[in-house]
Amino acid sequence: MDTALFKKSPSGKLVRAAGGYWAFVPGPLPPKIEWDDALVSVMSRADIALGTLSGLGETLPNPHLLIYPFIRREAVLSSRIEGTRSSLSDLLLFEATQIEKRGDVREVQNYVRAMEYGLKRLNELPLSLRFVRELHNVLMEGVRGQHAAPDGFRQSQNWIGSPGATLNNATFVPPPVPEMQECLSQLEKFLHAETKLPPLIEAALVHYQFEAIHPFLDGNGRIGRLLVTLLLCQRRILSRPLLYLSAFFEQHRQEYYDLLLEVSSTGAWREWIEFFLSAVTDQSADAVSRSRRLQELQHSYVQLAREKRLAPTAVQLVELVVMKPVLSARTAQEYLKITPPGARKAIRALVEAGILTEITGRKRDRAYAANEVLEALDGEITAG
Question: SS3 of 327, please?
């Protein structure tokens, strides 16, 4: 690690570990933030955009229509930042049929499981170190890295750098274990403290701090991004879990990494916070646009089904198609609570109507995709 970059950092300090290498220890939150008209303006735009999205979540007759696919889109994009290649359709196909088109799809599914676990767990336990450990256990269950310090924080040093990097030439070395434990304790105190900081600023600070501490040997980035949505839900700034920032972070990946590093090296909190708030503004507008498109598709599908005088079960299946745009006959059967032949008949009606397309080419264990819905979730959307 280039110690010259961190020697004068106002965000933390360099320490020499027992092994002779240097590491960076972030200072406790919160830092001093210089508020001016420009930052207030960026904050205001983010608040308005998030408020619009949160209001939409309150008015949805069935919020799971959007929550279910949005969580899965986030899982794909957050995992992609860490190098996985599975797509949204790969994940949905796996969930519907257990067909693995890519070997890393289980890692993506674990992100979904971790988010759903965390949202449910918030009803019983506030964000805390225990909460984070539980989240990490779900994220890593049954996939690569699961044996790296199971059931707890790391007990050895890790580092961030290009492939083949060592502790001595890494880009960044997080706190050694004793200092890491103290940093985690301070982070937990910040999470539980009453603060006058806006929750969006809190989320930006917590995300950086978690990344700087890097308390696990694997999965830090994904846990750090999960914490953003969970914190905003806990603070009741987000009425439904509809905001996810990984699409923005993935699109601006190098800037994302550079700004996190610059907070550590130069104390560039202002630049990081503005980037984070821009992500909130952008992704709130994007989520609203995708939500409206999905609702339009659902309405048009229902209208089409009625015009074609499809059976009531086929009309009912339209809502499931929007929520789960890749499905099997078993999925339809469980949702509609009907017999297997009845489920197949309902699916066949939507195929004939042009809403679903068979995508496996199999005679058994078939899967069907609503391609327009997948495009609305995964394609380019003009926010408006």
Answer: strand
The DSSP letter of residue 102 is S
Cis preceding-peptide flag for 340 (omega within 30 of 0):
no
- Report the C-alpha gap between 317 and 283 in whole angstroms: 29
Q: What's the pLDDT band for 66 if we cut at 50, 70, 90? A: confident
CB 13 within 8 A of CB 22: no
Query: Are 122 and 234 within 8 A, CB to CB?
Result: yes
Q: Are residues 340 and 212 in the same domain?
A: no
Q: Is 311 left (phi over 0), alpha (psi -120 to 50) or beta?
A: beta
CA-CA distance, 199 to 236, in Å (whole number)? 9
pTM higher than 0.85: yes
Give yes or no: residues 303 and 165 share one domain.
no
CA dihedral 44→50→51→57, nearest 10 degrees, is 180
CATH number for the domain harbouring residue 79 = 1.10.3290.10
> Which stretches within the chain are classed as H helix?
37-59, 64-81, 88-97, 105-121, 129-140, 177-192, 199-213, 220-234, 246-251, 253-266, 269-307, 312-323, 329-336, 340-352, 371-378
| Number of independent structural domains in the chain | 2
- How far apart are alpha carbons 128 and 145 in whole angstroms? 22
How many CB atoms are located within 10 Å of the residue 204 CB? 25
Specify the DSSP class assigned to residue 26.
E
Instruction: Report DSSP state, residue 175.
Output: -
Residue with tokens 């170190």: 129
Same domain, 261 and 310: no
Amino acid letter at 259? L
Which residues span the domain enclosing 215? 7-287
- Which one of 237, 258, 287 terminates a domain? 287
Is the pLDDT score of 382 beyond 70? no
